[in-house]
Amino acid sequence: xxxxxxxxxxxxxxxxxxxxxxxxxxxxxxxxxxxxxxxxxxxxxxxxxxxxxxxxxxxxxxxxxxxxxxxxxxxxxxxxxxxxxxxxxxxxxxxxxxxxxxxxxxxxxxxxxxxxxxxxxxxxxxxxxxxxxxxxxxxxxxxxxxxxxxxxxxxxxxxxxxxxxxxxxxxxxxxxxxxxxxxxxxxxxxxxxxxxxxxxxxxxxxxxxxxxxxxxxxxxxxxxxxxxxxxxxxxxxxxxxxxxxxxxxxxxxxxxxxxxxxxxxxxxxxxxxxxxxxxxxxxxxxxxxxxxxxxxxxxxxxxxxxxxxxxxxxxxxxxxxxxxxxxxxxxxxxxxxxxxxxxxxxxxxxxxxxxxxxxxxxxxxxxxx
Length: 369
Hints:
seven-stranded mixed sheet, 14 strands
């Protein structure tokens, strides 16, 4: 699905010295390279604060912990997303309220958000799925009306640009109260292990996030709250700082692959190519088709037989997972269940070779034409 080895070889002359510099310095935890990366990512995103943490799931958990929520408070999330989005909510004794998504963008449906609000609702977690942002203007309007916080799950859309109806353009993850991302190796900006980050324009929230991530201490050995131990290792920060300089190029390369797929599949009746919203650029963390007429699983098997990897993100709604059944009372969310039956993601990455992509396209067409 991705070719991390070839990407490393292309950037090797930049990455190796950055790693060696950390080794030579011996500052493996909270070293200068971490501060440099946080500063450079903040500048790229146009946000005041970036705090590196151990992974994207920690980022979501710490963000929610910083909002001073109470046991049983409700947090609205899309039902069509990775488990981590709702998992951390349950772990904190909060209640994930799962709502349906738009069929075209795969992102949270703002009409469904409004209908799900109760007196216990405290926050919304929009997930920018597959590489483009949710309808953040709609989410912001609802949050303002009901006094709710917004935590953006930006693990799949780092680098995407969101355009307000006024023409103002901002980076995804910087629109709500707090933004979170993952630096898992396969992400658009990926490190060589686990990593994540939290973004905010609030000085107060940034201070609380740093405290919570550092065992709840502002001053060493003085613990103000129950916190966690979550930090981005200095070596990972050094790798990420190198890759950050190439992030826009990574997006351009992924879009080139996506454009070629779009042209190849545009006229296939049983396949629907990804929708491009008019308010967001797309960084194509995934290139996700909708395969109709119940043929998705057959296409996946066919591709496997041809040596072509593909993935189903995601095969089961959150509310049908055993871990989350207690949080959902409705029988069915129509779009979520439709997408779980139809979506299929094809290989897309920064190092895609034209002959390889041609083979993937040929293999898809053999099945659906």
